[in-house]
Amino acid sequence: MIIATSGHIDHGKTVLVKALTGVDTDRLPEEKARGISIDLGYAYHNLDQDNVIGFVDVPGHEKFVRNMLAGVTGIDCALLVVAADDGPMPQTEEHLAILDLLGLSAGVVAITKIDRTNAKRIEEVIELTEMLLHGTSLEGAPIYPVSSIKGDGVAELRTHVETIASTFNSTKLDGNFRLAIDRRFTVPGAGLVVTGSVFSGRVTVGDQLIISPSGHQARVRGIHAQNRDAKIGQVGQRCALNIIGPNVSKEQIHRGNWISDGAVHAPTRRFDARIRLLKSESRALKHWTPVHLHIGASDISARIALLDRKNIAPGDSAIVQLVLNEPANALHGDRLILRDQSARRTMAGGSVIDPFAPARGRSKPERLAAVAAMENSDPVDALKSLINAQPNGVNLARFITSRNLTKVEAEALWADLDMIITGRDDERTGIAKSHWDALAINILKALEKWHSTQPDQLGPAENTVRLLFDPRPSVSFFNAVVSHLAAENKLLLTNRRLRLPGHQMSMNAQDKKLWSEVRQAMENAGLRPLSLHEVADELGIKSTALTAFMRRLAGTGFVTQISQSRFLLPDAVQDLAGMAEILAIESEITAAGFRTKTGVGRNMAIEILEFFDKAGFTKRDGNIRHIVKPATGLF
Ligand SMILES: Nc1nc2c(ncn2[C@@H]2O[C@H](COP(=O)(O)OP(=O)(O)O)[C@@H](O)[C@H]2O)c(=O)[nH]1
Ligand SMILES: [Mg+2]
């Protein structure tokens, strides 16, 4: 467990930590000389063999709230200190507001310096403190009067902290490893060391990790967990990691960076969050207000974009987008604090909803519905609402990262949902079964209608059908459903045209006769594309009469137009494309090679290859061609 002090300067935080642990956390020479804490101090108290309590002692001075914040974002428990003589002071209130905004509910209060005043005053300060706690996440926290100098009450407070620590649940090991770096230094003989609170998961000696946002690789050579040499470090502990990597040096790593599993390295310059403006703010918060954003151990300047209102009134909470001046590593649920532009006062705080927030359309109703779904803290419920809110599906890789789910956790999540997954890896999309089924039915209905109103057409182009629907299905969603329907023989897909299996294009008797003759001629020619003249000659009719008919056939997908005057049957196109694919595997696609393989003659081979280029199947590069897309999706 990690516990951090909070409270006004000079109220006895550092001396209390020393009384509890025996460690003086004011380690900097300047701190010793001035008698005040400037930066974070650390002390450890051994509970038993495997349980160590980590103390983070924070500075109370208003100038160093930034350092205080770096110390309290990853803690489990708060130790709020109020001096019995002074009573609550400005930083008592500000620190308490910060703990409240961070949602910290485990905590204990120490009323210090009781040797300096009388029982009546102590009672009064206890009452004032209780009033202050009222309505915050620390409401009802136990209050211990102590004298760190004389020792009164210290043992009782220590026992209480030990009890919290012994019941503290450190077995919640979900998620990937993340540690917010608050210090880095070099140790002679060992090298670079980074320290900080572990936010999630566990780390083992030998692990390969990533520094964020730089993206540099680092390997863990040694671990100190709660100040002890260890093989493993985990959530609920302060860890010092001895790391090595080709690009990691003391100069390149700073307080505010993260060291984490590669799966959760996702630096972002904008994220959506819910924030609450403190009641004590004198004015409503406006759109595009500049702020200091504190997240993890970092302090980044940012602006607040309001999404669903003109301003946020003091005490109110709202969904916003934070637009950052430099990248931060933020995941769903990460707590944040916002201070004013000149870093004088704490204004608001809250937690991250979506680290993959879009810049465009951030306040559109569809987007706000998605954000509302993502706000759900339970990943199953969140994904369930999200796939319902987004008919075109949800990028699952992003969802997994933003929720800090391991592969195993993610697989378990899929199993709980009525969801169809399309695509692979980073493109994996989860679509609600209900949306999928609805689109499948609507496609079939649309085809039925199309055939009944346009019986002389083979069927509509795939994209024409897609554009019929509102909301419009994405190309990938639509194609996935079409492929599925085609595989089940519920529709036929030729030449990127759709039709129902039973559909016969209606032609008048004359056209029917002509088509059967044309088809016979084309079948006889095999893979060689016949020109209009050749067909006309063979059938003994005028080529001008044939032109309009052939173009109409091509428009409905019965034949494929290769060039100005040449046509092939769709089956022949597929065979030729298949040969090109084989050629590409065997050696490479050249005009000569293609001619030999197909036996269609040199000029014809070139004409066909040029048609392939135009169709987006192949791409010419000098004398050879590469395959751009698989033929099955094109012809
Ligand atoms: N008499 C008395 N003095 C205390 C007590 N606790 C702290 N002090 C004194 O108050 C001053 C500030 O203490 P310190 O721990 O540095 O305060 P911090 O700024 O909150 O860390 C020091 O001079 C301490 O010796 C206490 O319980 N009794
Ligand atoms: Mg101090």
Shape: elongated
Present as ligands are: guanosine-5'-diphosphate, magnesium ion
By DSSP, the count of extended strands is 34
Instruction: Give start-end ranges of low-pLDDT stretches.
Output: none
Strand content: 25-35%
**Major sheet: size, sense and barrel closure?**
6 strands, mixed
Radius of gyration: 35 Å
Strand order of the largest sheet: 2-3-1-4-5-6
What can you see in these coordinates?
This protein is of the alpha+beta class and 635 residues long. It is 34% helix and 29% strand. α7 packs antiparallel against α8 and α17 crosses α18 (591-598). The chain is elongated, with a radius of gyration of 35 Å. It starts with a strand and ends in an 8-residue tail after the last strand. The model has no long low-confidence stretch (mean pLDDT 92). Magnesium ion (MG) is lined by residues 13-14, 37, 57. The site of guanosine-5'-diphosphate has 17 residues, from α1.
Topology of helices and strands:
Layout: E1 2-6, H1 13-21, H2 29-34, E2 41-48, E3 51-57, H3 65-72, E4 77-83, H4 90-101, E5 107-112, H5 119-133, E6 143-145, H6 154-167, E7 178-187, E8 191-200, E9 202-204, E10 208-212, E11 217-225, E12 228-230, E13 232-234, E14 238-244, E15 258-260, E16 267-277, E17 285-286, E18 289-295, E19 298-306, E20 311-312, E21 317-329, E22 335-340, E23 346-354, H7 365-374, H8 379-389, E24 394-395, H9 396-402, H10 407-415, E25 419-422, E26 429-432, H11 433-453, H12 462-466, H13 475-487, E27 492-494, E28 497-499, H14 509-525, E29 530-531, H15 532-539, H16 543-556, E30 560-561, E31 566-568, H17 570-586, E32 589-590, H18 591-598, H19 602-614, E33 618-621, E34 624-627
Parallel strand pairs: 1-3, 1-4, 4-5, 5-6
Antiparallel strand pairs: 2-3, 7-8, 7-15, 8-14, 9-13, 10-11, 10-15, 11-12, 11-14, 16-21, 16-23, 17-20, 18-19, 18-22, 19-21, 22-23, 24-26, 25-26, 27-28, 29-31, 30-31, 32-34, 33-34
Helix pairs in contact: 7-8, 11-13, 15-16, 17-18, 18-19
Bound molecules: guanosine-5'-diphosphate and magnesium ion.
Guanosine-5'-diphosphate binds at residues 9-15, 36-37, 60, 112-113, 115-116, 147-149.
